[in-house]
Amino acid sequence: QLADAIGIKVTNKNGQLIRQLHATKTSIIGDKMQLSNVISNLLDNAQKYSLTRPEIIIRTKNVDNTIHISVIDKGKGMTEEQQQRVFDKFYRVPTGKLHNVKGFGLGLSYARAVVVQHGGTINLKSSIGQGSNFTVVLPYDKYNS
């Protein structure tokens, strides 16, 4: 559902949303609303920070007793300094003189807090001009998977 909602925005920008859903164990114990907000925020950021036509990949896989949910974009990317600060409350990646990216700098701080509260981690790999890869790692519900 989340992918479908962002998919409309991506399609309207002549972009594409690619689903690579390889996880077979997907049941998670947690707050559905908060975890949905985390993934929604990552997807929204991926399309907002795309320089041209968005190309976003949603990838899932299981590693040991966890599910990895990655949102990968080919947007503008971030410097090392920006990557170190991007999860700080109120921090926003500078966009120069462009004011088309709206927000308060709370989304990724909130995302990290929710993921940690659920016993997981959120990781970032990014390169300027190459895009960003945010990966949420959560323990799956071993009793219902």
Mean pLDDT: 87
Helix content: 25-40%
Q: Give the tally of β-strands.
A: 5
Ranges with pLDDT <50 over ≥5 residues?
A: none
Largest sheet: 5 strands, mixed
- Given helix and strand content, the structural type is alpha+beta
Portion in strands: 25-35%
Order the strands across the largest sheet as they lie in space. 1-2-3-5-4
The termini sit apart by 20 Å
H and E string: HEHEEHHEE
How many alpha or pi helices?
4
**Overall shape:** globular
State Rg: 15 Å
Description of the structure:
- A five-stranded mixed beta sheet has the order 1-2-3-5-4.
- α1 (2-12) runs parallel beside α2 and α2 packs antiparallel against α4 (107-117).
- The chain has helices spanning 2-12, 32-48, 80-85, 107-117; strands at 16-21, 55-63, 66-73, 121-127, 131-139.
- The chain has 145 residues and is of the alpha+beta class.
- It starts with a helix and ends in a 6-residue tail after the last strand.
- The longest helix is centred in the first third of the chain and has 17 residues, at 32-48.
- It has four helices and five strands, in the order αβαββααββ.
Sum up the structure in keywords.
5 strands; alpha+beta; about 25% strand; about 140 residues; five-stranded mixed β-sheet
